[in-house]
Amino acid sequence: MSKPTANWEKLGDKFYRKIQLYTAVFDQDLELENYNAVGAPYSGAVAIYRDENKITTYRGGQANKASIDIYSCAGKLIRRINWDKGTIKGLGWSEDEKLLVITADGTVRCYYDLQGDFFPFTLGHGADEHGVQSCKFYSSGFVALLGNNNLISVSSYTEPRPKLLAIPPAEPVISWGIIPPTYSLSRSVEVILAIGETLYVVDATEAENRNFDAGPFRHISVSPRGEFLAFYTDDGKVWVVSGDWSDKLSEYDSKVKTVPKDMQWCGSNAVALAWEDEVHLIGPNGAVTKFYYDAWIHLLPDVDGLRLLTNDVCEYLHKVPDASVEVFRIGSDSPAANLLEASSLLDQKSPKADDLIQLIRPSLAEAVDTCIRAAANEYNIHWQKQLLRAASFGKSVLDLYSSDDFVDTCDTLRVLNAVRFYEVGLPVSYEQYRRLTPEKLVDRLTNRNEYLLALRVASYLHLPTSHIHGHWAQQKVRVSTDTEEEICALIVKKLHGKPGISFEEIAHAAYDEGRVRLATELLNYEPRAGKQVPLLLNMKEDNIALDKAIESGDTDLVYHVLLHLRKKLPLASFFRVINSRPVASALVESSARDQDHELLKDLYYQDDRRLDGSNLLLSQALSSPSVTSAIDKLKSASTYLKDSRDSAATFQRHALDDAQKLLRLQEQFEKDLGPRDGSSSPSPGGNGSSFVGLSAHQTITALLRLGHTKRALKVQSEFKIPDKTYAWLRLRAFVAARHWTELEELGKAKKSPIGWEPYFNEILGAGNTRVASMFVPKCTGLSAAERVDMWMKCGLVVKAGEEASKAKDRALLEEVSAKASGSAKVEIERLLGMMGKR
Amino acid sequence: MAPITPFSASEIAEKARRDLLLLLEGIRGKKNLVLEKALAGSVNLLVKSSTLQEYGVDKFFFLENDNVNSSQRNVVFLVRGEKAKTVMAVADQIKRLRRDSQIEHEFSIFWVPRRTLVSDQLLEEAGVLGEASVSEWPLFFVPLADDVLSLELDDAVTDLYLRQDPTSIYLAARALMQQQQKHGLFPRIIGKGDNGKRLTDLLTRMRTEVTAGDASSSTSPSFLGLAPSSTADSLIIIDREVDFPTVLLTQLTYEGLLDEVFNISANQTEVDSSVVGGAAPQPGQSGSASTSRERKILIDSKDPLYATLGDSNFAIVGNLLNKAARRLQSSTGRDQLAAKTTAELRDFVAKLPGYQAEQASLKLHTSLAEEIIKYTHTDIFRRSLEVQQNIMSGLDPTTQHDTIDELINRDVPLHSILRLLCLESTTNAGMRPKDLESFKRTVIQAYGSQHILTLSNLEKMNLLQPRGGSGLGATPAAKPGSVTNYTPLRKSLKIWDDEVNEAEPNDISYTFSGYAPLSVRIIQSIIQKHTLANAIKPPSDPRAAAQANPLAQGLRIFDDASKYVRGATFDEKQTGEEKAIKARNMLNGSHNDGAKTIVVFFLGGVTRAEIAALRFIGGKLKEVGGEGERKQNCGVHHQHNQGWELG
């Protein structure tokens, strides 16, 4: 076994290693130098497409067909997408392995699985006019540079919403780069443009000149986590600046005349410059190491390293993790290195093993941890084993040690080794695996149709498998040549009852494939109505969709279906559909009330709901601007009910006719009396300027206040308002208008339908004790004590005393006396004396 | 006590707050916020407006006013997306801004509580869907107090009972499901009312949907989540339809009267500043420095003074205020003089802010109470209360007609009259057709012909109906279960209590000074069987154990009573896989037999007085059985006038 340090290179005081992942990657005939290669993050698939700027030899018809080829890292062709849509101006991957292809006219195609299915959208903002120049991608979005230097940012592919960023100066852009929103200070995407000699930083709101005059800059590269920026100047220098622009960290002179074809970060600590067959790796403080190849080389940057791709090999260049350095560095005497040594001595049955263990005894736990970490980061299975064995040996010596990390690492390594296998071709590093998460890894396997492996991995890691099953089923309905019954039976047999299976998605796939019957069949197994309904609508199964929506109880779904139906069906059939479904018709009624009165009218007519129809007309009458049109509406509301015989309808007709009568009267009054006097204190209910709109009672009140008693009486008789009510209205109207004389006049009557007490109370409430007191003697129905109280309220103590003495109630009189004072006191005393005598 | 308290109000509030702020943070720069009026209260309750300003909100607008201007590039709409009307309003305003404004706006729409298909469809038709970035703010429950959660759906009653639109049931189910997913299923769902039944069915349905849907988390948490909870005992659902009279009565607790007089909405009420004094911002007052004459007052259950006042009968509030004033005076006054050593002084000074807050709160509540007294001393109030009490105690309602007539003649606000009329109708299974017709005519003559619609709506909701249902034909002659029959209930549930004690309440009847709300009685018949049984039929031998009372066995009272109560009765048990139950029990350890929460859900609103009554039961249970008790009153609270004056 070769030493693990064999592929290490020293760069400054750090080590980098270049791991050979796969050999014989591409067909030797493939002229990689004429292609662009773009790799998906986390060691995902590689897409290559012809670079149109390069001249190629003509080789007859068949090879000339343009295509985008998606390969695994091991060179296995996953998918070939035939391309005839024009010049590709940008091609990149999202974090979840969606392939984005942007053409010069601003059309974007998002290939969401690796199977060639895509959805398109356009950039807009003048992209078709000025043309897309190039694009830069980050984990969940991209920025496109147009011919007029406008920048368009798309930040999500689920609902792409291209946004125009601030407009930079229009001079030619030499190179550019982006800082992803996750790492920028402003939390939105920032673009760095090299224009002329300087740099501009552009975000959503402004384009700022950084006054960085060392340019022109040929390459701009942003480190994976945005903490550093690297620039390549025209005179062959590499500048590294911190992400917040505050520090210039290093400057390196490459002393090369040719501008490199690419510059990329390798992790966050080194920058790689690539020429055709040469790579320079530049570390901090100008340290450099060089690699030479004998074929054209492509750099595929990743979060923690760099993939190097040539026709022959796919290599992974990254910084050697600290744990590995500690264990493997030549001459290392760290505890971990000793532990590894001890473990191999043990294998050789050498007694020295124990000596070594005793030597590192104090830091053994740490040594075990280091070995585990080193194992996790190791690609070579032999050394993984060695390290784990050492860790296990160390563990056994320790009394107390939590084995969680050990077990975890063993599980992870098993998965990693499985997916790194060349037939799968996912050379994920440990760091990438942690960031990608196991769930996403399983998704990637699923997208590659590696169902068996995906299932094994998922069950090994205790992850849900429903998605894998779902994907399998979708694939099945797409490509299987079996009869529909067989497919359905097979899918149901395998998947029914498993939690998390979306039969809707499977049905959708079937429907897209044109297998409608299969889709309907499958949809029956979907328990979630929210999922069923839209597809059912697509499939034109409107009635079923409506029923399912109602069943779900989600009114949103019901509305959704109803809107759809309303647009599609003629009115009569629409009503027929909803008639048998009370919830649906209630919802139609409810929303029509807000928006569409015509529909409501038709609905009531259709259902023969006379009362509701008449109410609708009434509500229109109430909102109509003129009296005449209001009366007309009321009239039709009343005729609407002509044929109904039941009591509610009769009552309603009566009320409506009354309302018309009242309106006519009010109109008449207004003509006769002119607009009502607005200066008087606010009248009950009305706005103080018009009779129209008042109720019958209010009309009477208003008339009385203005002194038109005759007219008021007319209204009373017209509407058969009881005398009691009229008396009350008159009383309150007079009190409100302060018609004291009229009130006194009323007091001369013999009888009042409401008794005299209300007169007293109302007048007293208005503050006129004089007039109020006039009514006290008339309240004969009350007890003496109450009358005494009334006198007292008017401030007439003597009268109160007289009342008490008349009733011969001594206690009452004494009470009065206690409250009296001055001359009244004397008078009361006299009355008391009189009573005492008797 | 319990390891995870289900329905923790603060947790829910915090989550809602974070969600909203996160959404706002997602929009760069300053923005104008357009709010639906109905949401303003909830938002204000959850997030201070100063915090919103910190998150870049520049100006606030109401959707209904349609006046958002172009002063900011970013415009954010925060609206409910269930109704086509609001969706169209949003679309229109976006179109208007786009047309009129010089600058290019960035529109964002936060749908509450979810993004609906309809909203997408309508926005797309209006051609604005592409213009706006759409997200959702999943605000379901709004905590009003530590033990009260509300959905704050203002239109729920109109929708449910008048328009038969079950949207609110669905939202309620979603809200409850969300809690179930977090804390486990309610082992039992029991309750009364047709809509309640529908809600239960929806919950059952959602359970299967969730099991089928959740692929990502079919691992342990949700697996446990859908097992019965060990901290919640049951969910009691009361459909408002079951018991309308309680809402129609005047509430007589302090909080209830505050609501009657000043109208509480989302725990806030606006009071004329001449009543409470505009100066000296209270700790509870909202941060916005509005100088208008109306002052916003937050009903804060954390205020210790209010905590004692809120649920008390108003008759004793004066005494309580007095006592508090005296205590405060003695503790501030005497301490000040007595404080001699510096240490004592320091103690005193440290307590000062507390005293000041208390003093401010005392001042506030005293002036509020004075205002309420002014209201309760009016003749009109007394007369209408008299009518209510007479009707509830079982007097022949026709004897009250003269008083009602007089009140109409005195032109008291229409809603008071309607409350009395509906009360009579709902407690007596309708009114005599002749009486009803004459009242209807009088109301129309007194208040205007637009109220033909009001009355017709009330009839549709069965709040006002002729006896025997000869009228509309919509209600065929009182079928059992179609109408609540109060006459037998008055006895079997003792909903009228002649010996009410307002100062030291011994029964929930104190909340209405005699009437024990039927809704709460039903709940009692489920959870507090012994007490209720003894209250209804006092055992001849006081020493006889409660078990001896035959009424207390099983669900007898509940079953007996529900025969006379309108709507469906339901009692579902939710069980899970045995494994899961075991696992949950193990996780929660010995707490299993500790305190359990009973959740009460009012579908279609609850009054403040009912909440007080529930708290009273909760307190009693804690004393007697050592069984901890927290109740949640969800749904929409207090909706007296909703749906009445639809013109």
TrEMBL record, chain A:
Pfam families in the record, alphabetically?
A: Vps16_C, Vps16_N
Chain ranges of the Vps16 C-terminal domain:
501-821
Q: Where is this region: Disordered?
A: 672-691
Which GO annotations describe the biological process of this protein? endosomal transport; intracellular protein transport; vacuole fusion, non-autophagic
Domain of life of the native organism:
Eukaryota
Q: Which UniProt keywords apply?
A: Protein transport, Transport
Biased composition (Low complexity) is annotated at 676-691
GO cellular component terms, A-Z: endosome; HOPS complex
Q: Name one GO molecular function term.
A: actin binding
Start and end residues of each Vps16 N-terminal domain: 4-408
Q: Which family does it belong to?
A: Belongs to the VPS16 family.
As for what it does, the entry says: Essential for vacuolar protein sorting. Required for vacuole biogenesis, stability and to maintain vacuole morphology.
Annotated protein name in UniProt:
Probable vacuolar protein sorting-associated protein 16 homolog
Source species of the chain: Didymosphaeria variabile
The gene from which this protein is expressed is vps16
Automatic annotation (TrEMBL), chain B:
Region labeled Disordered — which residues?
A: 274-294
What Gene3D superfamilies does the record tag this protein with? 1.25.40.850, 3.40.50.1910, 3.40.50.2060, Syntaxin Binding Protein 1, Chain A, domain 2
* GO terms under biological process: vesicle-mediated transport
Q: InterPro entries given for it?
A: Sec-1-like_dom1, Sec-1-like_dom3a, Sec1-like, Sec1-like_dom2, Sec1-like_sf, VPS33_dom3b
- The source's domain of life comes to Eukaryota
Under SUPFAM superfamilies, the record lists:
Sec1/munc18-like (SM) proteins
- Membrane-spanning parts: none
Q: Which family does it belong to?
A: Belongs to the STXBP/unc-18/SEC1 family.
Full protein name: Vacuolar protein-sorting-associated protein 33
UniProt source species: Didymosphaeria variabile
Q: Which gene encodes it?
A: VPS33
